[in-house]
Records
---
Amino acid sequence: MAPSIAERLIGPRVALDERAGRTFRFGAPGFFLLIARVLILVSLFLPYWHMDLVAPQYPDNLHLTAHINHLSGDVAEIDGLNHYIGMRSLEEAAQFERSYGVYALILLVVMLEFAGWIHSRWAVLLVIPAMLFPAVFLLDLHLWMSHFGTHLDPDAPLSSSIDPFVPPILGTGTVGQFKTVASPGIGLILSAAASVTMLIALFFHRRAYLPLVRAAKG
Amino acid sequence: MTPRKNRLSRMLVPAAAGVALACAGGASAQSMSDVQKAAEARGLTTSDLLAAAKTYTPSGMKDEYLIFSSGGHSGQVFVIGVPSMRLLRTIAVFTPEPWQGWGYGVGNEVLAAGAVNGKQNLWGDTHHPALSETAGDYDGEWLFINDKINARVAVIDLRDFETKQIIKNPLTISDHGGTFVTPDSEYVIEGGQYAVPWGADYAPISEYKEKYRGSVTMWKFDRKKGRIDESKSFAIELPPYWQDLSDAGKLASDGFMFMNSINTEMATGGIEDKKPPFEAGVSKNATDYLHIIDWKKAEKVYQAGKVEKIKGFPVITLATAIEEGLLHLTPEPRSPHGVDVAPKGEFIVVSGKLDPHVTIYSMDKIKKSIAAKKFSGSDDFGVPILDFDSVVEAQVEVGLGPLHTQFGPDGYAYTSLFLDSAVARWTLGGVYGAGTPEPDWTLVHKTPVHYNVGHIGVAEGDTVSPDGKYLVAFNKWSVDRFFQTGPLLPQNFQLLDIAGKGTEMPVIYDMPIGVGEPHYAQIVKADKLKPWAVYPEIGWNPAKQELDPMAPKPKMERVVRSGSQVEVFMTAIRSHFTPEHVTVKQGDRVTWRITNVERAVDATHGFAVPAYNINLSLEPGETATIEFVADTPGTFPFYCSEFCSALHLEMVGYFMVEPAE
């Protein structure tokens, strides 16, 4: 009897006696996905991105830190300076992302949980969103910075003395008298490590289940 | 390393290595020969270079100690770094000071509390600052200072270096024996000076002995509130002897306090009537009286209600003080100035200005003499006089015009010599004797200072644990030390290095003070202070040290009118005020609230209004409220008086007062 669509989706089940003695082969995909989930959950509590603004009158620099759900550091001071060039308040940026980011990540973690149960190629679909998350985060950040840096209030006090700008989201740049130094936070690094772990998990997933899928197809 | 070592070893002034190394940090091309060349060009000696190495403080390096100096008749307090001797700040106290906005919209209520008989007296004569103490050691939290001219005491909060309270003594009109604190700052001591009838009421000077009185006031300090609690304070009536400096006992003498007096003759002057002038009459007797007061006993007497209300203030009368045995006198060399308690509290050092000795009293002997009632008699008022020989431990001849004594950590004591223009180092005996190589109770060395030294300060030198290291001579005259700034010359603070022993205590820096004539100053380890960099929250009221519920907040700026009352809620941030137009009608009563909403360190804004005598200093987070009647019609551009930003000049607004019809 040909497998149903549902059976094809979740892939072949592994009988208990088949598992016996092959703990690593069948345990590895789930184990690495578990590590990835833990890394992502821990990253929720850690900073994702830092920017240091360096200028002579700030001997300790100005700091801006982005977490999944909030900004911290010298936000008020940076906003205060930005008003001279007509940049909108940082709190207005990425409000949607900051409101729903934590839930989105939890959803991704749940998807990874399900991915462990699916032994077909479709598991990849559940893993890819989480795997791409760090890149999406940086891309989103870049888009917001471009938007803010290129949509300056023309009536601002110093609007005529500064051209639209987009500081690099990683590495150094220059805005007015400030040097900007952007670097990934530990949260983003953990999230990226989770992506690598997912890749490893997928490798072991393929090794464990592809032969079973092929065998089932006969 | 080898080439540098060779170069160093060739140097004639190895002591300058510190300077050279400091320079080498900046530019490696510099060498010791450059130091030598620069020194030769300016005629500097090896010891000059050594002094420079000990005091020069490159940009960004912080000082190890802070001097809190009285500002004399500037009515202020100066904060000075040691060893750099850089003036870090003035603190406005009794005198309006525009930079801090003090008296121009900031601190007006504090100043108003210092009114004398309802009349504003907007200058002060600050003499003796006292840092708050815990267990006899500076704790860096509060500073007290007296005003000699009007017998007032001020409380300064060292979180924001701002005066929080001025209190007027209701009993007397001049003070000199203050401020000094008891070992846990339970009380701030204020001893009166020139005797007057209670409350400085009128009485002819022919009734001096009957009507004129001395006093010491024990101001209860409420540390939690950071204010003197007048309702728990009391005073002790004293004979009209012109009590002078005082000091609180500590450790062995805890619970006692000591006061000098200079006019036990009760001279009343009258040079115009061919009577002996005060300067002669007051110095006639060979001895005056050291007052020994058991303040813990006095506190109990006060708490038991054995007081008389004078000018509404509880006073332990002289009769009660004698009866309760809390006041004793003992002879001291005439016209004394300083009375200073040694670190462990067992010795009390008195200097008579006209006697070349310092006289050291023993607390142990004082206590035994009081217990055994070893009196040599009593004074005109019946106060028992302890027998001098029974209470004296030693006398040390130190030089001419000894005034004030401070202590080192190692058994040395230091006394200023006004007439010798010198600072004497001498050895203590008793348990301190082992700390010094010289015999006990001996003059070791005198370092000349320039000139006419008054007080001296040793790092933490009046606490239970002196640090030594530095001594500052607070000289009254500078004569030829600085550029001749016309006939009015600055005072001279001279820094002495006292880290060495024996005869080694050179002057290493001169600092001119051209603002007032300081008297006493205390030197505290800088790391004991925990000042705020900005006010804790936006909308902070420094007068109350709490968040002001009425403070204007960003986006809630507004002008509210009801009849002739106008309330302005304004914020200040780089580089604008919000709102920028405020229009009222002549005669309106204006309540103007303004908050500096900055959080950046040093982002202070001013708020200056012409014609209305207003200038505020608004430090980051600070909110201020000013109230005035808009009595002058016109157009008044108000502006930020602190250069806050590149667009500071543009930080302006218009206050428009429409003329009444």
---
Amino acid sequence: MSEITQAQITELLCQRLVHFTNAEAEISAETNLITHLAIDSVKLLNLIMEIEDQFDISVPLNALVDVLTVQDLADLIYKIKSSS
Amino acid sequence: MSSIIAKLGVPPAQEGDSLSSEANAALTAPTPTMNLLGQRRADFATLVESLEYAAQGQTGYNFYDAKGNLKAVLSYKDLCINSKILARRLSGLGLTRNSRVALIADTTPEFVELFFACRFAGLVPFAMPVPVNLGSRAIYVQQLKGMLESSGASVAIANPDFIELLDEVVENLGRSELKWSGTPEQLNLLPEADVVLHPNSPDETAYLQFTSGSTRLPRGVVITERALMTNLRGIVCTGLDVRPGDRCASWLPFYHDMGLVGLVLAPLAAQLSVDYLATRDFAVRPLQWLKLISRNRCTIAFSQPFGLKLCTLRARDSDLADLDLSCWRAAGVGAEMIRLDTLQSFSAKFSAAGFNERAFLPCYGLAESTLAVSFPDINQGVKSLRVDAKTLIEKKVAVRVQADGRKFNEFVNCGRPLPGHEIRIVDDADREVPHLAVGSILVKGGSVMKGYFNNAEETARAIRSDGWLDTGDIGFLFEGDLYITGRRTDVIIVNGRNIRAQDVEELAEQQPEVRTREASAFGISNEDGSTSVVLVVECRLASATDRQTLINRLQQMVYMAFGVSCLVELVPPHTLPRTSSGKLSRFAARQGFLKRANMEQSAATVYTVG
């Protein structure tokens, strides 16, 4: 897989997240995963599985404690991706 | 360990650091199922005695990664050797006997080694959770801080994944008895003290078990060696009727009583091999657990109903072809209310993969009674009782439904108390009620805790002067078998997590806009059988923006603390019902909420909770 940029990750995430919410809410990098998208534990696990499959990485749980927004999550994926 | 997986492709630096993996340079095979050593079924006086015996055989613990590859093997023999070395290193810290040692409990060989090292050194270990929720740093740090303070821990240990979080906790500790904190690798740099490791006595505390994700009032259950061994004997001999050829598989967290007592200590006490999958890896890919059972021909594996649900949800028909679950003879289910349909959907799905529904073993227990209280007979499958819904609510009596067409509730039979234990159902006035009458479940017997550590008040609330433990659960007895009908309103169980209503309310009360005693939290059941947390707050804010900001903040805080979405309702002051003593009544608050929600169902902002 060719190098993926941080912006591309953010865009992909926004697209994927649409499927996780019933709301018509606009999803951007600043969207708060908890208050805006209501990502609960079950949805979170589904999301992580999709991310892991899509980006071929493994997301460690300890890293999620600092993730609040789509941007935070994109940064984390980029960090894991570029260090692997 | 999750970070080991994250770093695939980079040489896994942590592997070589573990004591346990030194012997595993060529990691090819897990420990065997069959043992050349004769089986002894938990007839030991102490935990280390159990380990000393198991160490003479070939069995042990095996750790698998997210892809199902064997990552580490820790035979009971190596565990015994390694934990004694660690015990001598811990002894060098000059701690008094029975000092507490806090361990962040990821599913790793290091945790088990440290746990036993503490017992060899006469120290009291306790497992702390790993963080699992988005954005939960602040609350997680707060939670660990509460545990370190309430236990008066002298040592705290976290693996490299979590050490940065632990360091933050340690920096925030005020006056504390903490003498040392670090990683297992750092502990390995300490010298081995030249000491004799004294045997433990049955009256000594074996470990503490913290209950629920409480943020401000963590309660550490004190379990003695005697209580532990009593419970293990009950599980091994009566509950599971363990025999040679048994093998266990588990994804349950080591910081939960069912994971630690049921699937770490009980197998050891019967010298069984266990195959572990980290909780996180199970949660993301639940089928790995079933694959492990199938591949290694495991016979015993436990789960919360929620775990079974995840398997059912995620399995595709194409997955079933590769599975052979016919080996699974004891499929224990516990740790939360068991709904019949969860079990039925699971067996409907996996019978095609050889799963035998008679393997289901729905049981009842709680950390305050070490783990297990009651088990049904092995190999009978799930039995249940249909009771008339109306009589149950109005008269608090379970009447079996005879005629068709009546509305009913169906409750799962959780079996009989373990030998040496008794169950009693009492009404609000503490009088024992007849069979089929619903009331509070009390338990008495050798597995019951000594109390909550350093917390006489909570202990007195839980254990009556005559030795009966109030479980906080509601149910009835029928023909000697226990049926759970619910919990009292002070605990909300969502997706297998116990959430104390008080903790949710306290979070709300920490907000400047919310006054003390003006928030009420409770659970409501959704149509699909899941539970939602509802938080009703009396609010004086007039501006719609301010109100929305408060709602968002409360939802975010509840999520970060407990990992669940929460429905927040703001109501005018004096809406919440109070008792004559001025205390909030959660039961009445819930009734009021349901009434309002029905009337305003269409107008209310519905917040989806999965």
